Amino acid sequence: MFFVGVLPVIFAFIVRKNLDESPEWLAAQKVKRANKIVEKGKLVQLFETPRIAFTTVSLIIMSTVQIAGYNGLMIWLPSMLQKSQGLSVSGSALWTISTAVGMIIGMLTFGRFLDRFGAKRTFGFFLIASACAVFLYAYATGSAGVLIGGAIVGFFSNGMFAGYGALISSFYPVQIRSTATNTIFNFGRAIGGFSPILVGYLLQSYDMKIAMLYLAALYTLSFMVMLTLKKSESVNYSEAV
């Protein structure tokens, strides 16, 4: 696995060598040079007004839910299936692979949905579908049900990963988009990383249905938070999405 991990490094080098900066970023740099602006984007800009602060906190919650759902599901899914379906370790691995395949397809197609239907409709649909899918997955029975259900859960709940960069950056001016994306998503990653602990507690104290209900509640919370998001008029949303 460590040797295979070298491949993304090679791909990253090739991409970096042939990657041009976005027209928006180049235009912003041109304006800064023309006006002799030396001030750089600061972290405090993510909270400089009540509206921006509310947006930042909302995006942190959504990012936290995304990471919490992913970690809680993928880390404990084998144990859930072994306990609920009586599968062996090797058998549960097959169903976990089906979830990963669904995730890959979801990530490859999420951007197309985003471009065609817009961020709110696409994220809204995927979040509601994720809540329903993980809740119903607790009632899946039989090999086909577990296999197909796992792929559907992976498609919706993990496919959204592909859109968070575009979603977060679209709410901030180009001068601070990278700072906003890294800060917000990685803060959510840090908080969401505790989710497996809670899922493990729920599995130990209750059962798989309660654990899946917890995950479904997370996606429902993210959906409600997403509905409150409003972009600033000073930010051109179409530039990022």
Task: Please render the helix and strand layout as text.
Layout: H1 6-18, H2 23-34, H3 50-85, H4 89-117, H5 119-137, H6 142-159, H7 164-169, H8 177-192, H9 195-205, H10 208-227
Helix pairs in contact: 3-4, 3-6, 3-8, 3-9, 3-10, 4-5, 4-6, 5-6, 5-10, 9-10
In short:
This protein has 241 residues and is an all-alpha fold. Helix content is 75%, strand content 0%. The longest helix has 36 residues, at 50-85.
Q: Any overview of this molecule?
A:
It is a single chain. The chain has ten helices and no strands. It has helices at 6-18, 23-34, 50-85, 89-117, 119-137, 142-159, 164-169, 177-192, 195-205, 208-227. The protein is globular and about 70 Å long. The two termini are 34 Å apart. Residues 234-241 have low confidence and may be disordered.
The total domain count is 1
- Would you tell me the structural class of the helices and strands? mainly alpha
Q: Helix fraction?
A: over 70%
Characterize the largest beta sheet: strand count, sense, and whether it forms a barrel.
none
- Termini gap: 34 Å
Anisotropy-based shape: globular
> Would you count the extended β strands for me?
0
What is the N-to-C order of secondary-structure elements (H for helix, E for strand)? HHHHHHHHHH
Find the CATH topology.
Answer: Growth Hormone, Chain: A
Number of helices: 10
CATH level-4 homologous superfamily: MFS general substrate transporter like domains
Mean pLDDT across every amino acid position: 87
- Please tell me the CATH architecture by its name: Up-down Bundle
Q: Rg, please?
A: 20 Å
| Proportion of beta-strand residues | under 5%
